[in-house]
Amino acid sequence: MDLAPLSFHASLEEQWDEEKDPEEIETVLKVAPPAYHQYLDVLSKVKAEKLPSHRAYDHHIKLEGNVEKGFIRPSSSSTRASVLFVKKKHGGLHLCVDYRKPNAATRKNRYPVPPMSQLLTIFNSSTIFSKIDLRGAYNLLRIKEGDENLTAFRAKYGSYEYLVMPFGLTNAPASFHNLVNDIFADFLDVFVVIYLDDIMVFSSSEEEHVKHVTSVLQRLRENHLFAKASKCVFHASSVEYLGYVVSSEGLKMDSSNVQEILNWPQPRNIKALQSFLGFANFYQYSPFIFNEEALSQFQILKEAFITAPILAHFNFSLTTIVETDASDYALGAVLSQVNDSGKYPIAFDSCKLLPAELKYEIHDKELLGIVLALKRWRALLISLSNPFEVLADHSSLQCFMSSKVLTHFQARWAEYLSECHFIITYLPGRLATLPDSLSCQDEM
């Protein structure tokens, strides 16, 4: 295969025609090595936004029950969902369709990712990696003919239905994963690993890697799939993937999973010490004496929290629990699993609330904590075959997924949460020691 890059002008004329975006092309040329400039069309935003053709993988919406049983019947009005428009960060409006009702009646189709131990074997002899992020992934797949009416929604000037797979349908991730896995079937576990819209290419040499990445880009072109250059990583010695850092040395936990503990500030008063002691499950009412010896033990204790076997790898077959908590100024979350020995932590996370978020009611702060936790660990939670449990310190959140009235940002959150299969359980704050400590430490 001729890997000589096309010239900048040839790329504009031959690949992008009249649909060129100079700023976008500049980004592509900056991010992608010259050997891949001949695939500018694969990295085109304009081409990715065209209506795709029908495929055998068109998304089919299977509702529980069927017409023959009389449980459902065709109706153009009963399936119309409500919508809200939410402002995007960089301007413009995002359409949020409330698909909670059809999602609740849809048979769930989960598509698990390979266990980390298997990936470790796959990457064993690799020294160079590239990660390709697909653009507008779900919109690259059509809705199965005949199911379009199930995506219907009502707007101010009429009702509409999707021709492409929208974000917010419960089985959308499984449908898309099925598509890309079949397209790259002969590459999988040889030099490619795929999770949803993230394609990992791995090789043992630079020369071999160019051939592998070129093959992937060519396969994307042949199947009218597109990548986002600004989110792609080419020819790296290590990359972040599914919450792990992949390198020639193997897999290791992403440091951000445990960074909240490593960055825990030195206690300056009794309250700060009590917060940390609460997290460590020690006595909270010890005298505040923080000498050099105490400082040394404080550092050792922080290291102990992130040392195996306390922090373990995620196991897709175990019961999974996400605990969240919100304080006045921050959010905290803990990802845990349960085995025969009991519950043990997998990862921790916390963050300070933004100025606008500080004004939220406590109900919305607690809900935001759930959203951020599910975003943080999405790659793991979305692939569980059984529902996981979310423990939150607000009883009304148990009814959120069935609430009829939503604010604009609640609608956006509901759309995101629809990807995961979970149950919200009320856990009083006095019992939520771990996430409460994480949310409080960000206030210090």
UniProtKB/TrEMBL annotation:
Cited PROSITE patterns: RT_POL
GO molecular function: catalytic activity
Membrane in keyword set: no
Source organism, top-level taxon: Eukaryota
Reverse transcriptase domain location: 67-246
Gene3D superfamilies, per database record: 3.30.70.270, HIV Type 1 Reverse Transcriptase, subunit A, domain 1
Alphabetical keyword list: Multifunctional enzyme
InterPro entries per UniProt: DNA/RNA_pol_sf, Retrovirus_Pol_polyprotein, Rev_trsase/Diguanyl_cyclase, RT_dom, RT_RNaseH_2
Identification of the protein by name: Reverse transcriptase domain-containing protein
